[in-house]
Amino acid sequence: MNFRMIGKFLSQILLLEAFFMIPAMLICLNDGELDVAACFLITIGTILVIAGTLYLFGRKANTSFFAREGMICVSGCWIAMSLLGCLPFYLSGQIPSYIDALFEIVSGFTTTGSSILSDVEALSRGLLFWRSFSHWIGGMGVLVLLLVFISAKNSNGFTLHLLRAESPGPSVGKLVPRMKKTATLLYVLYLVLTVLDFLFLVFGGMPVFDAVCTAVGTAGTGGFGIKNDSMASYSPYLQNVTTIFMLLFGVNFSCYYLLLIGNIRSFFKDEELKFYFFTVVSSIALIALNIRNIYATTEETVRHSAFQVATIITTSGFATTDFDLWPSSSKAILLCLMVIGACAGSTGGGMKCVRIILLLKSLKRSLRQTLYPNRVEVIQLNHSPVSEKVISSTNTYLIAYGGFVILSYLLVSFFDGHPPVTSFTAVLACFNNIGPGLEMVGPTQNFACFSVWSKLVLIMDMLAGRLEILPILLLFSPSTWKRT
Amino acid sequence: MKIIIAGIGKVGDMLAKQLSAEGYDLTLVDSNQNILESMIEKYDVMTLNGNCATMPVLRQAGVENAELLIAVSNADEINLLCCMTAHNLNPNIHTIARIRNPEYTEQIYQMRNAFGLSLYVNPEKQAAEKIANLLRFPGFLKRESFAKDRVEIVELRVDANSKLNGVSLSDLNNIVKCQILVCVVLRNKTAIMPNGRFVLEPEDRIYVTAPTNVLAFLLKNLGIITKKVSRVILAGGGRVSYYLADDLERGGIDVEIIEKDRERCTELAAMLPTANIVLGDASSQSMLESEGMSECDAVVSLTGLDEMNIVISLYAADMGIPQVITKLGHAEDTMILSRLPIGSVVCPKELCCNTIIRYVRAIHNQSGAAVSVHSIASGLAEAVEFSVDPSTKNCNTPLKSIKIKKNVLIVCISHSGKTEIPNGDSMFHQGDTVIVVTNKVLMQLNDIFE
């Protein structure tokens, strides 16, 4: 294990994090909240000291860097970022418990949006901004951002290990031959969409601060609201803009690249994209039918149905209405959407549409092979064969996913003894990076009702869900730490 | 610049490593997914699985906006077809194909036109030429020619009983009594660019720049006995052996090829009527002895197995054969081998890569581009040849008043047929050929200035 190289990456990541804290600190200064600004300053100082130490440690690193280092590096970076990123909440005393502060920032970085705060509006604006901005940082991935700055000379295969470990999806690839260009393209697309979202919100009369927080929260498909009622008090226009942008951020970014290079045919023929939008539209229609008697007008029904479907399938977690009060068939649909999640290569979480497609296709193949044992079939996606390695890793992922969810559910129930629906949807909401669950963790509730141990389990769930299990699982695997 | 490499074998791998490190956008095409998988984990490249000679695959690889296609799959015919198809899809693309079947040698010029080739490479033929060059001056471990063969950089090993042992470089000219320059010393796995106070030690490998016409004189003054080679044993009868035997026979040197495959022996005997073709296993010592190895002037190990070649060369060196040459096909790092007494090492894939990289740099950087590139000192340094053209800065200014980058050494200026080892008063003139040794990547001559 090349610890020095990992240390070097870690120091660079922490440096980026310190840099990202500066806007929040400036907001505090602007608001005259000097004590909160001081907390940010102390945090930045601490981060710089740690980053400096790590830099000295990793200065003379040799460049041997393989899949194992990539995985450990990614999970290590995310854990270190979270441990330090929660300091402003804790130091300012606005979230008095360290574990609560950690829960809040992990929920931010992993773009979950679950909160332990019952009164969000009580936080100072700098902290609110930092909370929302953490969604933007975590959405596309901070190591991918680091790859933007990597020099072409030093870049070799190891960059792929980082991208693979941090970007969601069963087979992560590059858009263009150079990793630096790929990462730059991804971030440019990300930034452009975020700015567009911001402009649409401001145009609709949202205050600038609210618009920035909502735009970055939507971009990362995070879901931290800055109001106690999330998005409910905003105008229907603003809610609709947010619905559309949540859905856009749930699309695989390589599809946008196809549009960019003018390959419109492949864009519209993409199987995952078709599956994603089919699922969205049919869910909206079914739920709208189911809840037509709750709201006064059709417009309101469709708007709430669309918003809730978008927020759940893209795993954002904003809310415009309390869907916990909806009939159970609607809740069942939402529960299914929680598991499906957004597209691979997007900022959303969940199982990812492409995995569902692959699992269905391999199930179909298995059925046929049982009937006709001599038939040889190759699974195809977008008219090109999918390697057996990808199929088997998808199957493995399903098992790991199920195992993780069940184990967490057992642990959370064991620690707190909340009703099954609460515990189960809390685990699902955290693991799929959604935010709200049902009943005691519903859209109008929060996660404060859990004990410290349950919160730690949920923190691990959020990280494992964001990094797609393997990097976190490898941390606990003895063979990772064996000398080879 | 976008480059497609079709066929990932030894040469493809080496090219991907070099070119991706130089910052080009590479797409690798091969029909073996496992090889591609290992490539993408090693280098910053894109890969594509498929037959590189088909239009859909080439299109998907982006041949329409690529500037160069390098076809180095293991079949000549596929390489040719690949280049032709690419050329039809994009008439502006440069194409390089590896063609190594000797039977095609005769028609190579017709093929270049017919298939739209910009360049063809033949690693085995290049290796044979290199070996023939070494055999002409026994005593040097490596020779790299520059400036239309007027200047060379040669590699020598300092032995304990050599005249060079313990000599400081400023005193060197008193011993060799001719104009030379030690440009790089390889000591303990590091390449040093020495100054005048540097003292040579045993086991050092030195790289010396010298005009070609003083090489014989240099060998004589160093006390290295040079007897003209008249009888050579080639162990292994592959393609390199054929090209080399053909070349040597023309020069009147007796060649004996030991090959263990009967059919190949018959083929060789038909193609090389004057050479001695022996059926046998070159790795057996009794076989070598019975073929009169002790009386030959040089042994060249050319079998398909690197380890076999090393063993044969060790044995030959132990027998006291004046010149031993070892071919290495796979070995990546010759550094660990440099301690073994296996004589000169010739690596066909490296020669081929150097040719291709030189071409790539030339199209990337039309004016002032490198005329030739040779990696020396086990790849730790590069010797690059440039021509001085109107775009060159600092012409007609003495070198002592120009700021040159660190670790860049101007080892030779060739001016209208006269070669000169430069000093502070030397200067560049239009049309000169300049040879520079460095451990950096130099794209054009102007890169050497601060």
Q: Low-confidence parts of chain A, pLDDT < 50 over ≥5 residues?
A: none
Strand order of the largest sheet of chain B: 3-2-1-4-5-6
Classify the helix fraction of chain A into a percent range: 55-70%
| Count of discrete structural domains of chain B | 4
Rg measurement of chain B, Å: 23 Å
CATH class of the largest domain in chain B: Alpha Beta
Evaluate the radius of gyration of chain A: 22 Å
Mean of all residue-level pLDDT scores of chain B? 86
- The CATH topology assignment of the largest domain in chain B is Rossmann fold
Main sheet properties of chain B: 6 strands, parallel
How big a fraction of the residues of chain B is strand? 15-25%
Task: Give the oligomeric state.
Answer: heterodimer
Structural class of chain A: mainly alpha
Total number of helical segments of chain A?
Answer: 22
CATH architecture title of the largest domain in chain B:
3-Layer(aba) Sandwich
SS-based structural class of chain B? alpha/beta
Beta-strand percentage range of chain A: under 5%
Description:
The complex is a heterodimer of chains A (484) and B (450). With 484 residues, chain A is mainly alpha-helical. Chain A has helices at residues 3-30, 34-58, 67-85, 87-91, 98-109, 125-140, 142-149, 158-166, 179-203, 208-219, 236-249, 253-260, 264-269, 271-290, 298-313, 328-340, 353-371, 388-416, 420-431, 452-466, 470-475, 478-481; strands at residues 380-381, 384-385. Chain A has a domain at 267-340. Chain A contains 22 helices and two strands. The model of chain A has no long low-confidence stretch (mean pLDDT 90). With 450 residues, chain B is of the alpha/beta class. Chain B folds into four domains: 2-121, Rossmann fold (3-Layer(aba) Sandwich), CATH 3.40.50.720; 127-221, Regulator of K+ conductance, C-terminal domain (Alpha-Beta Plaits); 231-321, Rossmann fold (3-Layer(aba) Sandwich), CATH 3.40.50.720; 357-448, Alpha-Beta Plaits (2-Layer Sandwich). Helices cover 30% and strands 25% of the residues of chain B. Chain B has helices at residues 10-21, 33-42, 55-60, 76-89, 108-114, 123-136, 172-176, 215-221, 239-250, 262-271, 285-290, 306-318, 348-364, and strands at 2-6, 25-30, 46-49, 68-71, 94-98, 119-121, 142-146, 151-157, 181-187, 190-192, 205-211, 231-235, 254-259, 276-279, 298-301, 323-327, 344-346, 372-376, 381-387, 408-415, 418-420, 433-438. In chain B, the strands form four sheets. Chain B has a six-stranded parallel β-sheet, with helices on both faces. In chain B, strands 14-13-12-15-16-17 form a six-stranded parallel β-sheet. The relative contact order of chain B is 0.11. The chains are: A mainly alpha (484), B alpha/beta (450).
